[in-house]
Specification:
- The complex is a heterotetramer, with two copies of chain A and two copies of chain B.
- By secondary structure, chain A is an alpha/beta fold.
- Chain A has one domain (8-114, 148-215): 3-Layer(aba) Sandwich (Glutaconate Coenzyme A-transferase).
- Chain A has helices at 8-11, 33-39, 62-66, 82-90, 100-112, 175-181, and strands at 20-23, 47-50, 70-75, 94-97, 116-119, 133-136, 139-145, 149-160, 165-166, 182-193, 212-215.
- Chain B has one domain (5-208): Glutaconate Coenzyme A-transferase (3-Layer(aba) Sandwich).
- Chain B is built from five helices and 15 strands.
- Classes of the chains: A alpha/beta, B alpha/beta.
- Chains in contact: A-B, A-C, A-D, B-D, C-D.
């Protein structure tokens, strides 16, 4: 079974207005650049996007923000993006802020068939408003529900035609869990190899979670905070 | 004389023990890494998915795929490991990280902390801070004692939206080291040359002073 | 003539579609792997932590660290992956496995299944069966139509402790292929030479027979 | 920081009567042979053991069963062990059977600070008796609670002095999650290398979860069902 599609254009077939989509990455690290760019050239809009961040003004998901394709963002951190702040404050953009660990776990839960679970994060804060709470081991916890998506879009370092993925360094972040939580998961990879070439002991995301895969092009990998040793 | 940022970081470094797994927030906490005593070894966890964070890279070794939670380019040390965000927060939530050091806008005498939102002015999001403060056994706040307007950041009750409740254990400011106790902020140490009266004046919350308060030794 | 075990497996193999991820239980289900039509490719999941299960090994390639859920030594195919049990059941519970084929002691006309315990006689444990039947969209039971005492295993109500409720979709026995419907067991196909009356006699639960029932084609 | 201990004898320091312990492995695959053997030579007893299986009569946890060191087993499958069946039927041994996926997730939850979560497995069966149930997405689920242990004992293929672990093939199984759920986690490995020798991109269990590590000896790796191609 070969899950390969030709390119980003073919990969996004079936994406529609109003869908919920997940995008991997932390800051600009490990984001699916090809699909974001492709999608920002379409008129697909009213999207609910689940992503830890929302890119910067002129890169990553910021491109889709500028084109007002996003109706709602579900994220843990959205700083460093002026257009984002403008749309949020004007009410054009709906924003749901979720603690980062809770976000990660809600996505994993969506992929793992766990509809809800308890965590301590956010109890007693705005995050807990309207949520059920309950004590375990003398500590209060919130009931948190799973996230799923019509499409999950992830970026990996290497992948094979069976959909297996390997990430490099901290470019894994949300990609692994999001792959689990998409009804359709698209993976763009820097290097696509035939099934059998990756060591089966060292697969980060097993192919079962990936429906479409292609080798991306022209990766920019912009660095947000270039910090060097003196 | 009040401590500068580096001195606050240096004092906090004294909280570290050999073998500790440590999560450092953005700002002053990041500086703590520069002052780890030579005789101990700690392992830095970065919540975006790594253990064993090293120094900043050189121009030759910089890699866009290797950043910390502050989105700064970094390196890794021998014995490092990389993993996804769910595993990273499993470490944090599961209590495997020994100490979390983070900044704050306000801390209350109950140990509540506000650090992520100023209504009408700033909403960047909580990132991993809510998970960290709700889970770690040992939470140290690094901050200035007062804000830029000269108002105390150690309060009876926080005025800003909370990051977590009853979680802060210790606070290191430019003026003092304090513990959160049942009865309020207990003064442990004072910055060299700073008087108990000055600290009292700068602390809106209940300040408990018992016996002689030694000066911070750096 | 009733189907033998291999013929039951061969009939079940017809349920597979190209690209399916498949979990095969112990017993007859394991045999299904031998009858996957040549023109399609399926990927076998083993709940102890692998995708891409291959054939049994040779004496030269056998490895104690490579077994299936039945604890048999096996091999892996190109494109395989290995992972821990939590990830394995994330696949199963999350609905990523397309079809689960397992054995049963009893199935009820509501789709309940009993397969793990005979009180006072046998308690080996449920293993992964409860997770599998509670989660998979497409659950096929492979079993004999009657037990060794000649009693029907397709019942109005299960008598043994349940593995799951309202989960079985299709049943392939030595006598017939049936679907579980709102109104009872719907007869779809009969074994070559076996009459509808014979199947009716061997089925304690409600049997729905509509129109002509074709013979199973292997 | 070096987590190395000399051998099994040093590794089990602090184990006491009445403790709860987890043991990795599936069947006899990936079991911590050295620690089990060592423990079976002690008089430590009244143990609650969480392990997917309980070995066979004369190997693995079966050794501790024979010496009646185990008070209670929490497992998903306990077949193929005559002494086990005898002790269970006579009431000498308490047994709690847990569906395998629920067992795996309860252990992960214990390590991940999630006190409880919902799963569909076992609803409407004996497993659901006495448990809270609740509907999500039109389907009934059970509330399941996390497992933790005083000691978790795991076996890996390779490990380093920082506690990082790598498993081979299906010998991973429960080991990875159990490492997360032990107050003290002991890892025995076939090959122990200095920190820095394992590729940090391909660590299965990060060292933070492991407190003690040593290179095991004399691995037997008994095969339960030797099946060969004709």
């Amino acid at each position: 079974m070969n899950k390969t599609v030709k390119n980003a254009t073919e990969a996004i077939q079936g994406m529609k207005n109003g869908m919920t989509m997940m995008f991997g990455g932390f800051g600009l690290c490990g984001i699916p650049e090809n699909i974001i760019l492709e999608l920002s050239k379409t008129d697909i809009k009213d999207l609910t996007i689940i992503s830890n961040n929302c890119g910067v003004d002129d890169f990553g998901l910021g491109l889709m923000l500028q084109r007002k394709q996003i109706r709602k963002m579900i994220s843990s951190y959205v700083g460093e993006n002026a257009e984002f702040e403008r749309q949020m404050l004007s009410g054009e953009l709906e924003v749901e802020l979720v603690p980062q660990g809770t976000l990660a776990e809600r996505i994993r839960a969506g992929g793992a068939g766990i509809p809800a679970f308890y965590v301590p994060a956010g109890y007693g804060t705005e995050v807990g408003i309207g949520k059920e709470s309950r004590e375990f081991n003398g500590k209060m916890h919130l009931l948190e529900h799973a996230f799923k998506a019509d499409f999950a879009v992830v970026k990996a370092w290497k992948g094979d035609t069976a959909g297996n993925l390997i990430f490099k360094y901290t470019a894994n972040n949300f990609n692994n869990m999001m792959a689990m939580a998409g009804k359709i998961t698209i993976a763009e990879v820097e290097e696509l190899v035939p099934a059998g070439e990756l060591d089966p002991n060292f697969i980060h995301t097993p192919g079962i979670f990936v429906q479409r895969i292609f080798q991306g092009v022209d990766y920019i990998k912009r660095i947000e905070q270039l910090t060097l040793s003196k | 004389m009040a401590l500068d940022k580096n001195q606050i970081a240096k004092r906090i470094a004294q909280e570290l023990q050999d073998g500790y797994y440590v999560n450092l927030g953005i700002g002053i906490p990041t500086l703590v890494a520069n002052y780890v005593p030579e005789e101990i070894k700690v392992i830095l966890q970065s919540e975006n998915g790594m253990l064993g964070m090293g120094q900043f890279p050189t121009k030759e070794t910089v890699d866009a795929d290797l950043i910390n939670a502050g989105k700064q380019t970094i390196t890794y040390l021998p014995g490092a490991s990389f993993f996804d965000s769910a595993t990273s927060f499993a470490m944090i939530r599961g209590g495997h990280v020994d100490i979390t050091i983070l900044g704050a806008f306000e801390v209350s005498e109950q140990g509540d902390i506000a650090s992520w939102k100023v209504p009408g002015r700033l909403i960047k999001g909580m990132g991993g801070a809510m998970d960290l403060v709700a889970s770690a056994e040992h939470i140290v706040v690094a901050m200035q004692h007062s804000n830029k307007e000269g108002q105390s950041k150690l309060l009876k009750k926080c005025t800003l939206p909370l990051t977590g409740v009853k979680c802060v254990k210790r606070i290191v400011t430019d003026l003092a080291v304090l513990d959160v106790t049942d009865k309020g902020f207990k003064l442990l140490e004072r910055a060299p040359g700073v008087t108990v009266e000055q600290i009292k004046a700068a602390t809106e919350g209940t300040l408990i002073v018992e016996g002689d308060i030694p000066e911070i030794v750096l």
